[in-house]
UniProtKB/TrEMBL annotation, chain A:
Coiled coil: none annotated. HAMAP family: Trp_synth_alpha (MF_00131). It is an enzyme of class 4 (lyase). Signal peptide: none annotated. This is Tryptophan synthase alpha chain. It comes from Rhizorhabdus histidinilytica. SUPFAM superfamilies: Ribulose-phoshate binding barrel.
Automatic annotation (TrEMBL), chain B:
The beta subunit is responsible for the synthesis of L-tryptophan from indole and L-serine. PANTHER family: TRYPTOPHAN SYNTHASE (PTHR48077:SF3), TRYPTOPHAN SYNTHASE-RELATED (PTHR48077). Keywords: Amino-acid biosynthesis, Aromatic amino acid biosynthesis, Lyase, Pyridoxal phosphate, Tryptophan biosynthesis. This is Tryptophan synthase beta chain. Residues 68-392 form the Tryptophan synthase beta chain-like PALP domain. The modification N6-(pyridoxal phosphate)lysine is found at residue 102. Pfam families: PALP (PF00291). Its cofactor is pyridoxal 5'-phosphate. It catalyses: (1S,2R)-1-C-(indol-3-yl)glycerol 3-phosphate + L-serine = D-glyceraldehyde 3-phosphate + L-tryptophan + H2O. Pathway: Amino-acid biosynthesis; L-tryptophan biosynthesis; L-tryptophan from chorismate: step 5/5. Residues 1-14 have a biased composition (Polar residues). GO terms for cellular component: cytoplasm. It comes from the Bacteria.
Length: 271, 409
């Protein structure tokens, strides 16, 4: 069993969805990341997604674009990212950590280099926004041989014919991008999310986590009733943008409200 | 310099890309999952269009009567005399409707958009030439159109912004990043991903995810096909050299592609060296960059050691992009085409020289290619032939040039 499957299994055993939280690495500075990541764990996050900042985050909305700029403005490097991951792994031996970002910073020194460094830093999975299954060769084989899970994305445009292509070679969990759009903007209708999750669960044993546009506890609770995981990113990133180096407290409180919402959803389900 | 080529050449260099949309290691489809089904649809629809005589007939008719093709191949007698070497012919793409080669591609893509039943057009633009060409075809076919343009470019290209608005387009000033072409492309991709159901993205250069580099090249290859027939008619033989400016590289690949298998034809792409390759203010992705992944394809990019994209600089807004089309990266690596750098100052001098010698004000992009001609023609024999792609006219650049020369208009 891996840390990722353990985390989803643990949540499932509690009858609830796993809470997956995203922050951009190095936002507001690399030095502030330790307390912020710890706050996510203390608030009840089950899986941590650490964004790799990129100059051209073309799938992201304004909140995460600004976070990328803050991180790069603070001088965040790939070496900083890996050091943040390694330090997190030392403090939290069992909390799964996933790197999320764009292809170019991941393949710059070669996919094997990146996969090996990620594995050495204790990273469990990698989500690359702009490497679709058709380009798997650019990173997937290197990740698999290093024991790091390539996590695939499914979207509202992933139809029945295409779903097997996405699932082939997927591991860790399936990340459902619930809106055709960029991060943090609109939210999907609950009915469409339920239909999509049902479709995916019929096709794979991987846990299905739902993200994009999940802004607060109410939506998290609703999605938590049907999905294996709920991803919250932009709303947390906005808090970091607002509070900067003092963000750990507000991040912990907000994460705790999300975590409580998922537990509420579980109680309702059980009742 | 070009990397040594150790692998055997294929029989033809004109069959690319392969079934994965790659030219050697370059190209591909590096897009988000949301866009992937649409990109595959576009490829299917493009194959169907290629096999459909009605598509070609409509394209040819618009090229002739709306764009004004064929464009002339003009013997530049005084420029030739002045340089004292090879005979120089100008392929007059600046005489097209809207004043540049960009319209060739826009006509082709909007016909594809209509075939696919898309009802809204978006595009990115730097200097505004592709934006104007896109707004033009959108007006011609009655489709609503949004142009993404960096806020910095909006400020320095007001005439083109007004042109686009006159043509009925909405101009969206992009305030993210450095607020130039690269950021406009990011924002266009963000819009597209949120509106895939009804929106067609007309990419302006031979870059982006497959099949864009291929279809843009094919629509621009009318330049090379015409030039080939025209030079054969004028001189009874193929040229010794082709020269074209390269930003993303659509005018250059359009000229080069029909000649790729003619081993005796040397091809020179001209990259913008800005304030010099020894400074950090240039846009020469091949001479000063390295392979990476951006905007849907693997190609040469200006980037740092961590893969962060660095800002490009050129006096020519059309060359001010930190990447290059993937087929050029491949032609560079296999050594079939050469890529030479030309600085802002060299381009400015050539801009003025062509105006005085031939009565033609070239676009600053094309002035880069001219500067390379000025270096190369004198080293060649008087019986040798050069074809230069005069890709655009310079009216749009007079304010930039005046400012660079310290003239107040």
């Amino acid at each position: 069993m891996s840390r990722l499957s353990d985390a989803f299994a643990r949540a499932r055993a509690e009858g609830r969805a796993a809470l997956v939280t995203f922050v951009t690495g190095g936002d507001p500075t690399p030095a502030d990341m330790g307390p912020i990541l710890d706050a996510l764990v203390a608030g009840g996050a089950d899986v941590i997604e650490l964004g790799m900042p990129f100059t051209d985050p073309m799938a992201d909305g304004p909140a995460i674009q600004r976070a990328n700029l803050r991180a790069l403005g603070a001088g965040t490097t790939t070496a900083d990212l890996l050091a943040i991951a390694a330090a997190f792994r030392e403090r939290h031996p069992s909390v799964p950590l996933v790197l999320m970002g764009y292809a170019n910073p991941m393949v710059r020194r070669g996919p094997e280099w990146f996969a090996a460094e990620a594995a050495r830093a204790g990273v469990d999975g990698v989500i690359c926004v702009d490497i679709p299954p058709e380009q798997d060769g650019a990173l997937g084989p290197a990740l698999r041989s290093a024991g790091v899970a390539p996590i695939r994305l499914a979207t509202p445009t992933t139809d029945a014919a295409r779903l097997p292509v996405v699932l082939e070679g997927a591991s860790g969990f399936l990340y459902y991008v619930s809106v055709a759009g960029i991060t943090g903007m609109q939210q999907a209708g609950q009915a469409s999310i339920e239909a999509a999750v049902a479709r995916f669960k019929a096709a794979t044993d991987l846990p299905v986590a739902v993200g994009f546009g999940v802004r607060g506890p109410e939506q998290a609770e609703a999605i938590g009733r049907v999905a294996d995981g709920v991803v919250v990113g932009s709303a947390i990133v906005d808090l970091i943008g607002e509070h900067g180096a003092a963000a750990a407290g507000p991040v912990r409180e907000f994460t705790a409200t999300l975590s409580a919402a998922l537990r509420r959803a579980a109680q309702e389900k059980a009742a | 310099m070009n990397a040594p080529n150790t692998s055997p050449r294929p029989n033809t260099l004109r069959n690319g890309p392969d079934e994965h949309g790659q030219f050697g290691q370059f190209g591909g489809r590096y897009v988000s999952e949301t866009l992937m089904p649409l990109i595959l649809d576009l490829e299917r629809e493009y194959r169907a269009a290629q096999a459909d005589p009605a598509f070609k007939a409509e394209l040819d008719d618009l090229m002739r009567h709306y764009v004004g093709r064929p464009s002339p191949l003009y013997f530049a007698e005084r420029l030739t005399e002045h340089l004292g070497g090879a005979k120089i012919y100008l392929k007059r793409e600046e005489l097209n409707h809207t004043g540049a080669h960009k319209i060739n591609n826009c006509i082709g893509q909007i016909l594809l958009a209509r075939r696919m039943g898309k009802t809204r057009i978006i595009a990115e633009t730097g200097a505004g030439q592709h934006g104007v060409a896109t707004a033009t075809v959108a007006a011609r076919f009655g489709l609503p159109c949004t142009i993404f343009m960096g806020a910095v470019d909006v400020a320095r290209q007001q005439p083109n912004v007004f042109r686009m608005k006159l043509l009925g387009a909405e101009v969206n000033a992009v305030t993210s990043g450095a607020q130039t072409l690269k950021d406009a492309m990011n924002e266009a991709l963000r819009d597209w991903v949120a509106n895939v159901h009804d929106t067609f993205y007309i990419i302006g250069t031979a870059a982006g995810p497959h099949p864009y580099p291929e279809l843009v090249r094919d629509f621009q290859s009318v330049i090379g096909h015409e030039a080939r027939a025209q030079i054969l008619e004028a001189e009874g033989r193929l040229p010794d050299m082709l020269i074209a400016a390269v930003g993303g590289g659509s005018n250059a690949i359009g000229l080069f592609h029909p000649f790729l298998d003619d081993a005796g034809v040397r091809m020179i792409g001209v990259e913008a060296a800005g304030e010099g390759l020894d400074t950090d203010k240039h846009a020469a992705s091949l001479a000063g960059g390295s392979p990476g992944v951006l905007h849907g394809n693997r190609t040469y990019l200006l980037q740092d050691d961590d893969g962060q994209i660095t800002e490009a600089h050129s006096i020519s807004a059309g060359l001010d992009y930190p990447g290059i089309g993937p087929e050029h990266s491949w032609l560079h690596e296999i050594g079939r085409a050469e890529y030479h750098p030309v600085t802002d100052a060299e381009a400015l001098a050539s801009f003025q020289r062509l105006a005085r010698l031939e009565g033609i004000i070239p676009a600053l992009e094309s002035a880069h290619a001219l500067a390379a001609v000025e270096k190369l023609a004198p080293t060649m024999g008087k019986d040798q032939l050069i074809v230069l792609n005069l890709s655009g006219r310079g009216d749009k650049d007079i304010f930039t040039v005046a400012a660079a020369l310290g003239v107040e208009i």
